[in-house]
What we know:
Distance between the termini of chain B: 38 Å
CATH class of the largest domain in chain A: Alpha Beta
CATH class of the domain at 6-281 in chain B: Mainly Alpha
Strand order of the largest sheet of chain B: 1-2
CATH architecture of the domain at 6-281 in chain B: Orthogonal Bundle
CATH superfamily of the largest domain in chain A: Response regulator
CATH architecture of the largest domain in chain A: 3-Layer(aba) Sandwich
Radius of gyration of chain B: 22 Å
Largest sheet of chain B: 2 strands, antiparallel
CATH topology of the largest domain in chain A: Rossmann fold
Low-confidence stretches of chain A: 23-31
Helix content of chain B: 55-70%
Shape of chain B: globular
Mean pLDDT of chain A: 89
Number of helices of chain A: 12
Number of domains of chain A: 2
Helix content of chain A: 25-40%
Strand order of the largest sheet of chain A: 7-6-8-11-12-16-17
Strand content of chain A: 15-25%
Largest sheet of chain A: 7 strands, mixed
Radius of gyration of chain A: 25 Å
Distance between the termini of chain A: 50 Å
Order of helices and strands of chain B: HHHHHHEEEEEEEEEHHHEHHHHHHH
Number of helices of chain B: 16
Structural class of chain A: alpha/beta
Strand content of chain B: 5-15%
Order of helices and strands of chain A: HEHEHEHEEHEHEHEHEEEHEHHHEEEEE
Oligomer: heterodimer
Low-confidence stretches of chain B: 389-397, 404-408
Amino acid sequence: xxxxxxxxxxxxxxxxxxxxxxxxxxxxxxxxxxxxxxxxxxxxxxxxxxxxxxxxxxxxxxxxxxxxxxxxxxxxxxxxxxxxxxxxxxxxxxxxxxxxxxxxxxxxxxxxxxxxxxxxxxxxxxxxxxxxxxxxxxxxxxxxxxxxxxxxxxxxxxxxxxxxxxxxxxxxxxxxxxxxxxxxxxxxxxxxxxxxxxxxxxxxxxxxxxxxxxxxxxxxxxxxxxxxxxxxxxxxxxxxxxxxxxxxxxxxxxxxxxxxxxxxxxxxxxxxxxxxxxxxxxxxxxxxxxxxxxxxxxxxxxxxxxxxxxxxxxxxxxxxxxxxxxxxxxxxxxxxxxxxxxxxxxxxxxxxxxxxxxxxxxxxxxxxxxxxxxxxxxxxxxxxxxxxxxxxxxxxxxxxxxxxxxxxxxxxxxxxxxxxxxxxxxxxxxxxxxxxxxxxxxxxxxxxx
Amino acid sequence: xxxxxxxxxxxxxxxxxxxxxxxxxxxxxxxxxxxxxxxxxxxxxxxxxxxxxxxxxxxxxxxxxxxxxxxxxxxxxxxxxxxxxxxxxxxxxxxxxxxxxxxxxxxxxxxxxxxxxxxxxxxxxxxxxxxxxxxxxxxxxxxxxxxxxxxxxxxxxxxxxxxxxxxxxxxxxxxxxxxxxxxxxxxxxxxxxxxxxxxxxxxxxxxxxxxxxxxxxxxxxxxxxxxxxxxxxxxxxxxxxxxxxxxxxxxxxxxxxxxxxxxxxxxxxxxxxxxxxxxxxxxxxxxxxxxxxxxxxxxxxxxxxxxxxxxxxxxxxxxxxxxxxxxxxxxxxxxxxxxxxxxxxxxxxxxxxxxxxxxxxxxxxxxxxxxxxxxxxxxxxxxxxxxxxxxxxxxxxxxxxxxxxxxx
Lengths: 449, 408
């Protein structure tokens, strides 16, 4: 040990002490803002946190397109899209409360960790007031929890698990997308009508939270119609080969196969089930059928011919004929040359809803925004009159039952609309046992102050 | 000082200064400038730099010294996180028991996996560790998260719910991870100097103190007779066996130590953000720490920390640059030029951050086989103007000649 070292350390120590002494008076002063990231300039920032890499990257990119479009419309660029049909007229195309809307983007990688890291950087570095987007329930629940802790508003993107607005509901989080319970409630009557009430179902379920809640919901809804559930087999998430799961289906005495899979999983399992010739078989004197409870355009595109004649449900589809849908499809189509996907519509609508809520509340304070959104009844955004329920922050609106088209005319025309299930058929009490029962609560709104 | 020679003391002091002054160093651009996009001095990313630095330092003790390439270290990180969140759920939000338990659990877990995996060396060892890690991932993702026995909460990640027992929690303590009442996510100082603003975060400084401590520990291990044994394992295990030394206890000890480092990193991750996701255990996460170590310079002391910072920087900064940002940067150009520049750069930003990182990784591996540390040495050598050949001899010691790994 040399003497010079000692001196260096001495200097350091003195420096540190002096620095701390200088800093001390300012150390406990907090910045005088009323809530997290209170906007001070002429612009206000929101964050679009979507999967740009990983299995749901396609969904994520489509969400991003829709969100950009929404920002343009809010700032008065483009043709205004759904702002023209939206029942609330608080937004006038000059940004929000006179401030121009800006956005930052991030990559969730469809991983809870990465999504939270990205969301945190948006909150801490970019100072966003709201985070929107995402393509997985796990990510939605994780980011929703983070936004609640940090005191900003979270608008979930594509998340279908009951938990998001069920046992994991949060005061600062909102979901426009429908959920597994609503899918099942909309599908079951249509299935009973098409396939009869005396059916035996076999479930293949992706082995994680979303898969379980969907399977639970579909089983309950179809059993209420008189169906019987023969078996429920959980398939590992990473599987790409489902043949060993499909082979036993035929000998089980079941005559319907329910595929509780999503994304690439669903594309593989459906394609393989069709290749096995399941749909040409006769069991119990009836045609064997396949059901995919949650559809998306991108999955239908991936599965190609296999989706023909297969029933499923959707939150929204570009083929709807109401004015709101047509306005969105027109401006989206003109900008990007393709119709928006269901999750894109959700993210677009959520961005407008947030902006509108701020405008109606007259404040960017998250708690004021939450209050403005709770119990908000609106129309003109597709799906007819819609309610943001105050008890669990879930949107209630009509649910679409879709069927794979037998003779598609172009690459976007793969699904046909079978039925629009009215909102009152898919409603449930906020303390429904599948949604956390009486224990689930939103907690109180957090503005980070 | 502290039993280190003067070079190592210097290194330790440099690292300590870098870590302590990071909020200044990482925010070189004024907040309102276009370059603020490249600022990394916000709490979450700084915490990640330091935590993954700890992870990589630990990994380097195994890989850098013994040459055993573990492809499953993320499992220990994940186990550490789960242990910490369980402590939050059961005891209280205090981070001390959480971090302690995460290190202990990771140690036990690594004894188990190490005992089995270390029966083989080379590629077989790598495959075994990879298999264990993927098993842990699958267990955490679905098997151990079924409604009847929910240990990990699967896809969503384990988090603290209001209904959890938290027996030691009481009124007045913050409802977020804290150190005896000091909330980890709060900032204790947010100075603004002119256009620059800086953030000093409680959690970051806890991580920073731990990083300096474990960095010191790793220097001691590198310089100890035990470290020498580990290097002997790397250079020629057979010869070591013939001289009558049993290498297995040494490698197992190194494996467990690096597992504990990973557990500490996992516990800290949970302490900064109380959520433990299964993806933390996935093979990509294990691969990432291998990349960090190689990128920075395997077998060097400071390399893994640099590598960790490098990768996390790209993941968090480049993935957030989008076309709009590019348009802003190039707005001074004529329209056609601007669009062209955006078009050229588009594949490398946003969703393309993997591509950028991959290219840089290739460049480093091809031109700087010793990692970023070698780059630093070459620059240092340039400045010294060939006064000393081959850069500072200091790292010649830290950096044993790249001998063939056991995996080769």
